[in-house]
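not sure who needs this but someone in the group chat was asking about Type I restriction-modification system, M subunit from Jannaschia seosinensis so here u go. i didnt clean anything up, its just raw.
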Amino acid sequence: MYRLGDALGTTAAHPVVNLELHKYAAKYLWGIDFEARAAKTSRALMLIAGDGHTNIFGPDVSSLDPRTWYENSSGQALMHGLRQAKLTAAKIPEQETLKDDDRAWEYFDELKFDVVLANPPFAGEMKDRKMLARYELAKPALKRAGSDKAAKEERDVLFIERILKMLRPGGRAAIVLPQGKFNNSSLAFIREWILKKARLLAVVGLHPNTFKPHTGTKTSVLFIQKYTDEQLADIARVHDDVAKDCPAYETEIQALLDAHEGDVPEDAIPDAVADLISETFSEPELDEPAAEDGEGEDGEETPEPPSEEDRIAAAEDKVDALKSELVGVKQKLIDLDSDVEALEWQQKNEIEAIGDTFAGTARELSAHLKPIKAEHKEAVKALKAKQKETAKRLKAEIKRLEKAIPEAERDLKLLTSRGKLELVLGDDDLIGTLKERWIAAEVAKRLDYPIFMAVSERGGKNNSGD
């Protein structure tokens, strides 16, 4: 990087250096952008500054999802370029045609760039479950959504993980991020994940006017260096050394529940557990009022939102109603079998009554009963056929209710601190997260490396962006 900067300052006097600069830019500088204007502008600027336009890819090439690279010529050029430059961590077979996007993550998940500079978009969320499943940082969002709600995660969060995966071990990155990613307590899991994967080199706070007039969002630049395998092995040894002293969070939470008959006061919950609850659980959403001025469509005042006690009572009623409905539906399914048994019992009694009163021989009785038994058999068959569709519908309803009841019980627990603690206690992943956070904090104390921190007090622009 130093040679590149020095050469840029002396190209007019040293044409040989200028040629070297062009070769360097053409081979080593790469760029990806989804937006057509950004990609086009980058090519033009690189052509003017150093002939590095060759490896600028876009538009419609998403850095977040390599499956999109298969959809257009620019994405295809990116894939072939990465393979030719040997910048993929996974070896791509020579006979691979790069036409099957099912192999996208296998080939292009991990790359081997030395340096990544990025200013990812702050706004917008990604909602593709198949893509989100590829990201460790999207796991909390997927967990919150469950199986019945739409999962979503902010794009800049996913970019953090994607950028680290684009780096070779020891590679460095500088990423512009909203300030909230650095100090928001509910986003602690992002910072924890970063510190597991990379060394924090520096954080530089930018002036609020830096990106005006486009946005006034307070931002900082994160400088990180991806750990090498050797460094990760050293950290793992420290991790194992401190893990034996980790608190038994299951015992602590159970003791907390046992110590309180009703709800658990928030101030009694340890900070580590409270932080995890805050970022993991969201309460069931309430319907928004129809108008913002406190009045409904007919000019009437909008009713006050229900109190906490009313919400808990409503949630309890919902659970009870679902359980009662399940019992009723199961009874209807049992009754179907009872109806068949009742018909068969009635038919049996009819046959016995005929036998008791029949005056002829046994052979004559058998001949007399034959069409009656055939008729009975058809009646049972017809009843079972009729019940088949009813049974199918009832079983589907039972399945729906058996799924809805745990969800309703979870929603009820989300309304109280006791309920949230019970959810944490019953989730091995969350208990594991508590333990890993404690261990990570202890590991950080032992590593204790210096971090450069700075704040820019001059934005270079006024409040209007000029």
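also The first strand starts at residue 31 and ends at 32. if thats useful
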